[in-house]
Amino acid sequence: MNALREDERLDYLPFGQLKIIQSKTVFAFSLDAVLLAQFAYLPLQKGKVMDLCAGNGAIPLMLSTRTKAAIEGVEIQQRLYDMAVRSVRLNHKEGQIKMHHLDLREAPAHFEPGSYDVVTCNPPYLPVQSGQKNVNEHYAIARHELYCTLDDVMAVAATLLRPKGRLALVHRPSRLADIFGLMRRYRLEPKRMCLVYPKIDKPANMVLVEGMKDGQPDLRLLPPLIAYTPDNEYTADLKQIYFGEQTLV
């Protein structure tokens, strides 16, 4: 049942000793997914967590090392959904993680509104009209807002979250104005933000943002996170987060 397909490989996730099925022909998890999994607030025991744009299941699997809450994931691409399901089985996480092959825009019709404690999302970063779209359909869908816009993510998260529930999002700093504007539109008050810099002398290339449904205005800026040293090694702070020794909560 968990046998690898012809072009697939088995990788280890960075913490928790979990394995994940990946392929060079589809979008694989990267540092942004790892940081989001370590940034999201999670209930420790009970609760419900939903990961939108779940891909091959990397974020649900990593979240499962931090909580005993029920975790679900929504992924529109059949290939990635199938890989995620097999990775969940491979790690014996079927009792905690459930994947859904679904367009996230249809999620409010399939799940109980106002019933989730946390929603996470690593969405496509680029508007359709931006940049050159990849000829590989799997990469194009993962990178460009072909089937999922930032507005869609905010609308669905706001519908699924209970009052005071939290959305954790990773994106590009260039979209911060859009992120904050849409959060406020959908009553997801920005509460925490962390800018990630590739190197100390480079502009930030990633941002982690948390919003609380019907929360009070009170945005907390976390210390900046530098990813690489001048020698292209992970910094000490990044290593602690990447290997699960500390979180960004």
Automatic annotation (TrEMBL):
Keyword Membrane present in the record's keywords: the answer is no
Name of this chain's protein: Methyltransferase small
| Domain Methyltransferase small, chain residue ranges per copy | 34-172
| Molecular function terms from GO | methyltransferase activity
Going by the UniProt record, its keywords in alphabetical order are: Methyltransferase, Transferase
Q: Which biological process, per GO, is one annotated for this protein? A: methylation
Question: InterPro entries from the xrefs?
Answer: SAM-dependent_MTases_sf, Small_mtfrase_dom, tRNA_Adenine-N(6)_MTase
Q: Which organism is it from?
A: Caldalkalibacillus thermarum (strain TA2.A1)
The record's listing under PANTHER family reads: TRNA1(VAL) (ADENINE(37)-N6)-METHYLTRANSFERASE (PTHR47739)
Q: Record keywords: Heme included?
A: no
